[in-house]
Amino acid sequence: MTSTTAPTKPTALVTGANKGIGRETARQLGRLGMTVLVGARDDERGERAARELREEGLDARFLRLDVTRQDTVDQAAAEIGRDFGQLDVLINNAAIVESGEVPSETTVATAEHIYRTNVFGVIAVTHAMLPLLRAAEAGRVVNLSSRLASLRKAADLDAPHRSLLAYNSSKAALNSLTLHYAREFADTPLKINSVTPGAVPTDLSGHQGNRTVEEGARTVVRLATLAADGPTGGFFDDSGPVAW
After folding, report:
1. pTM of this prediction?
2. Is-catalytic flag, 115?
3. Among the options 19, 115, 167, 181, which is catalytic?
4. Is 171 among the catalytic positions?
């Protein structure tokens, strides 16, 4: 499964990288000299995103990856192992939301649909990529979370807080995954963190927000390129730690 030669530059996989913050994250990592793997479930959109990045002079390659389908996850890991032998950066960016969610009206079917991508998809991809991340000198995992995941903020019933039951709780669960993975690998070079990109107008946010995709991707990239003395098991935004 592994390559016989070490890669000449770091390799990064970004899930859901055909648009929005995922694509911008791939762009910024590519500008840092990484080979970026544009993970996407749609061949046409993924190929187009990778081609556009290559036209900017970046080393970008489409990788078919549907985080809800184990067969594509396993195939993606096999391809990375064959072509590179390791993975330096994993950005778990792919996510979905039901924008009109009301807690008392959220169905089990809706919750299962959202958790399948936002939680179980992250577990599937992370587990498949862990051998490749550990083969790298200093693997980095960044999980795209949200301020809506903060239980401390949700607990303040007098403060404004958008209550999307399935989405918010799925991102809180994602933060919990971050903590458990970070604890397991605390004594290794592997670092795992969560990040909130802020209110960026993308398809996921219903094109609402006051931040650019460039700003939203900035902290993602910072956590993806942490030095050896950087943090692990944290939840961050541009300003620093965010309340769990």
Report:
1. 0.93
2. no
3. 167
4. yes
